[in-house]
Amino acid sequence: MSLRHWVAAMAVRIATRLDRRAPVFYAADVVLFAHHDGVPHVLLIERGKNPHQGKAAFPGGHVESWETSLEAAKREAVEETGLDLDRVPLRLVGVYDAPGRDPRGRYVGAAYTAVLSTMPAPVAADDAAAAHWVPLARAVKAAQDGGFAFDHADILTDAVRATGVGR
């Protein structure tokens, strides 16, 4: 971390301690699609930690004080799946801010998406217990059956709509 980033992080910590309001955390997720033999797939991780341990989710996590949500989405993709998205143009799907969307506290999340031309093999790491490409139809069924963490079922619906994948 550079000195500039460290100073920014410390300023946020000091400001948070002086503010009596409940903190709002910022998160970013990335929904990646690809086709294999003409079948649309989506990249999912299995959460390795609570909350929602064992449930399906998209690669994502906290936005650090020195980065944008887009930068965080790309960083989290590398950390949780090993996929480097630096040269992949990501499109904003939406901002998700419903109170109660995360049991750990008040979270606002930005979700991004892209359709990849290849299906690179993910390698689960960080807090992802597993990472794999799943046929979109199976992911939609899991979302309908409550198999997704947080509000990621809604994010999947919106990402499918935004990209037109699977239609």
UniProtKB/TrEMBL annotation:
EC number from the UniProt entry: 3.6.1.55
Top-level lineage group: Bacteria
CDD domains found in the cross-reference section: NUDIX_NadM_like
Domain Nudix hydrolase: 23-156
Enzyme's top EC category: hydrolase
GO molecular function: 8-oxo-7,8-dihydrodeoxyguanosine triphosphate pyrophosphatase activity
InterPro entries for this protein: NUDIX_hydrolase-like_dom_sf, NUDIX_hydrolase_CS, NUDIX_hydrolase_dom
Keywords from the named record: Hydrolase
Transmembrane segments: none
Family under the similarity heading: Belongs to the Nudix hydrolase family.
Protein name (database record): 8-oxo-dGTP diphosphatase
